[in-house]
Structure prediction request, 610 residues.
Amino acid sequence: MEGLIQTRGILSLPAKPTGARRTLLLQPSHALKQRLSTRSLPPLSISSNGHSKFQSFHKISISNKERNRGFICKAEAAAATAGEGDSTALTPKVFGVEVTTLKKIVPLGLMFFCILFNYTILRDTKDVLVVTAKGSSAEIIPFLKTWVNLPMAIGFMLLYTKLSNVLSKKALFYTVIVPFIAYFGAFGFIMYPLSNLIHPEALADKLLATLGPRFMGPLAIMRIWSFCLFYVMAELWGSVVVSVLFWGFANQITTVDEAKKFYPLFGLGANVALIFSGRTVKYFSNMRKNLGPGVDGWAVSLKAMMSIVVGMGLAICFLYWWVNRYVPLPTRSKKKKAKPQMGTMESLKFLVSSPYIRDLATLVVAYGISINLVEVTWKSKLKAQFPSPNEYSAFMGDFSTCTGIATFTMMLLSQYVFDKYGWGVAAKITPTVLLVTGVAFFSLILFGGPFAPLVAKLGMTPLLAAVYVGALQNIFSKSAKYSLFDPCKEMAYIPLDEDTKVKGKAAIDVVCNPLGKSGGALIQQFMILTFGSLASSTPYLGVILLGIVTAWLAAAKSLEGQFNTLMSEEELEKEMERASSLKIPVVSQEDAAPGESTSQLPGKSAPTSI
Prediction:
C-alpha cells in the first residue's frame, strides 16, 4: 500500500495514526471538504506527534476545473500502510509463504500430481493397445486422431459449453470427471477381458480382403473399436481433466502474483508423478516374466494399472472438495466487463472474433501439429523394435521416467526464466526447442547412411538409434511444454473475464488441442497418399514443420503484447479501487496556486511538521 499511495499535496499524514484519529484522517468531515472547495486554505500538515498546525489562509485556491481534473494520486499514506502492515505482521507464514496461500497451493500441487500420474499411465497404455494389437500398427494413429478423436472432442466441447451455462462450477467438475473414472475401471475389468468377443475381427478381415491393404488404417479402427475408444478417452483426459478442469480451477482460486510464483512449481510435483508413474508402468509391464504359461500378462498388468487410475481419480475428487470447503477465493477486480450468457454458436462467434483467443488457439494448434509430425514416424520404428505389448509398454515406462526427470530440471529453471525474461521469452522457448530437436530427428532419418558406422561402434542398430533419437526429441519437446508452454498458456487466461475464460478454455483446450494433432495427422495422410509412404514424404514434412513453428513464434509475439496490456489495465483498475476506498482529499503539486513554492508543500519522502 505504501507504494500505491504516495502523494504530493497539501495533506500529509502521520506515520502511525491510531483509533479515532485514523478515522478522522481517512474520512474528513463535510464541513472541511466544503471549506476546501469554497475558500482559500493554508497548507495543512499533521506532525508525527499528532498535533495539527495551520499556516495562513491565503496561499492556495482550488478552482472547479482543477478539482474535477482526473488524475491518479499516489499518496504516502502512512495510515493505510500502518494498518496493512499490522495485519500482514499477524498473518502466519511457513517458509515465508502465507498459510492461506499454502492451503491453496499444496492441494493444487497434489491434484496435479494425481492427474499427471494417471495421464502418464493412460498415455503409455493407449499407444500399446492400438499399435501392438493384431491387425493394427502405428499407421492407425493419423486416422484415429482425425476421424474419431476430433469429432468426439468437438462433441464434448459443445456439451461442456451447454453444461457450463446450467451447472455450478462444482457440479460441472464432478459431472465431467466421474464418467472418466468409471470408464477406465470398466475397461480394465470388463471390456478388455471381453475384447475377443466384442471386436468384429472376422468382418474386418473380409473387408480388408475386398478393399485392399491401403484401407488397413480405417478398418483397424472398426476391428479394435474398444481399444480406439480407450485411446480417445485417454486423449480427452489430457485435454479435459488437465487443461479445462484443473487449470480452470487453479485460475479461479489463485491470483496473478501467486500464479507467477507457483505455476511453474506445480510441474515439479507433476514431473515427480511422471517419474513414479513411469516406474509403475515398467513394473507392471514386466509382471509377465513372473506369470505362468498361458496367462495373459498384459491383461493382468492392465487391471493393476486401471485400479491405480481409479484410486488416483477418487483422490482428485477429494482434494477438489477439500479446497472448495476450506479455502477462500481471492478477490478480483470489480470492474470486469459483464457478459451475458451465450449459446453455443454465439460463443464460437465471440471466440473467433477475439484476437487474444485466436493467438492462444494458434499456440495450441501449432504445438499439436509440430509434435505429431514426428511422433507417428517414431512410434512406427518403436513397434518394429519392440513388437510385444509388454516390451513396448516397458520402454514407454522408461520414456516417461526420463521425460519426468528432464521436465523436473526444466521446472527448476522456469521460475528464473519468468522472473528474468518475462512471459514473452518463456512462451518462445518451446517452439525453438521443438524446431531444433525435430530437425535433428529428420536429419538422422534422411541421412542415416553416413552415420551407420558410428552407430555400429556404439553397439546399436540403425533402427535402435532412430528409436533413441526420436525418444530424445519427444523428451526435450515435452519437457519444454510442461515447464514453460503450459504455465504460459494458463497465465494468459487469468486477466480475461469469466465468460471468456470458461468458454475460451473449452474451445481451445478441448477442440484446438486435438485439432492440432488431427491437423498433423491430415498432413501425414495427404503425404502418404501423394508420395506413397511416410518415409518418402519426410523432406516435405521438415519444410512444413518450419512453417508451423514460424507461425507459432509470430502468435506468441502478438499475444505477449496483448497479455501485457491486459495485465496493466487490471493493475490500474485495482489501484483506482484501492485509492477510491480510502476517500482521502488530496491535491497534487500541479494544482498548487501559481507562485507557490513546491518546497512549501510536503515532500513525498516523509510528512513535514511546521
Summary: The chain has two domains: 96-329, 342-572.
